[in-house]
Amino acid sequence: MQAAHTQGMEQLTRYMPKIEALAARNKLDYDPVDFELVPNTFMMEVAVYGLPIRMPHWSFGVRYIHQQVQHRMGGSHIFEVVFPGNPNRAYLVTDNGLAQNTLVTAHVLGHADFSKNNALFARMQQQVGYHIVAEAAERARNIQAAIEEHGQQRVEAVLDAALALEQHIDINQPIHRPDYPTHILPKSGPKPSGFRSRYAALPGEQAPPIRRRTRAPIPPYPESDLLWFIARYAPDMDGWERDIFLAVREESFYFYPVFACQIMNEGWASYWHARLLREADFLPNDLYLDAIKSHSDVIRPYAQGKELSLSLNPYHVGFTMWEDIIERHGLEAALRIRSEEDDFSFIRNHLDEALAEKLQLLSYRVRDDPATGTRIRIENADIKTLREQLIAPKFNFAAPRIQAVSLSNDGSLALRHDHASDGRGLDLERAQKVLEYLGRVWRRPLALETIDAQGKPKTLSTR
């Protein structure tokens, strides 16, 4: 078994440069990719933590157990994980066969091309840097040092609060943003004109009043970048605690393009692994057929036969859409779309009625009935409504929009849930728990305005 595995890896190593040369001939442009073969247990850890090494926290252990159960039940199989950067870092599973890892090699090249050329990925990488794996390892070492100095319980309390808010960033702000201005000037009146200006210029006339500065409110506007706000304005946090919040925030910026471009990115990589393998005449026929079988497994809808599926396979949707775009508009148009758009514009601009029907997409509404339980009703919706339903879970990093609105002189903080834009209330029990996590590091009173399940005003607070 070991000999066959070693032989397969040697073959894969021979195929890799040929696949890369084929990608270059097809106008794929990417930074170097470092491939590494790892065991399945390591791959599950990477999938759970999001990075090969990351800050230690109990919540990742819970996610690992869930991932392991899913894997053993056949509901989850991880073929590869790739981290954009320069170089890109790609991990392949040693348990995969040669055909699967050959397909994954081509798939990774599609990801690498996308992350280098997509505007959102490029903007975030320029801010975060191109060596996220090494930087995450350094953060993990810093947190371990903090544990040794301040104790497990205290550091864990800070991580509880920071990771509970990891989705609450504002990607329209730079990572290294300045503090708010401390003072504001009152608005000046209109300058005198005509006779009034000549009169004001006469000798002996009174000088204009001095414009005095007033202290600016904090925040000067509703602030959605909660990780940054707490790191900068919490009244009693130590420097190392603020550093943890900023570290979590920086990693959230790194992960955002992966989340916001998932359909485009996975579809692009799937399109290119299929095309490159199809054109790779150096591959044996039996290996090619096995690889294409894996391709079919990757891009199929979740539902089988005549069943209905209420979950979306981004590989399936993205692959089908890219195939349609390239067939109808050509590769150059696809390359431009890949560079300029994210999932929001991709779905709105390029998912039409014919594609929605081909993908068998449907619109549905979920209602919780106390008497009968959860009920799902399939609806006939126009294409615009369907598009918006597909992208709705992606808004605001899939998190409710919570904003800091007022910091009082005594350090108490008022938060507000922007339920009008969210279109829904909060899970009040979970929101109260997060507020308590936050209270341990804010160390002053906190209040959160939201609505309950009936849409009535509700205020949560720490005691």
Note down, in words, how this protein is organized.
The protein has 463 residues and is an alpha+beta fold. Among the domains are: 132-174 and 217-258 and 400-461, no CATH class; 313-396, no CATH class. It is built from 19 helices and 11 strands. The protein has helices spanning 2-25, 40-49, 58-72, 98-117, 119-128, 132-150, 152-164, 195-200, 226-233, 239-260, 262-279, 285-299, 314-329, 331-340, 343-350, 353-359, 383-391, 419-422, 428-442, and strands spanning 33-38, 80-83, 88-93, 183-184, 214-215, 363-369, 373-379, 402-407, 413-417, 446-451, 457-461. The strands form 4 sheets. The protein has a 4-stranded mixed β-sheet, with helices on one face. A hairpin with a 3-residue loop joins strand 6 (363-369) and strand 7. The longest helix has 24 residues, at 2-25.
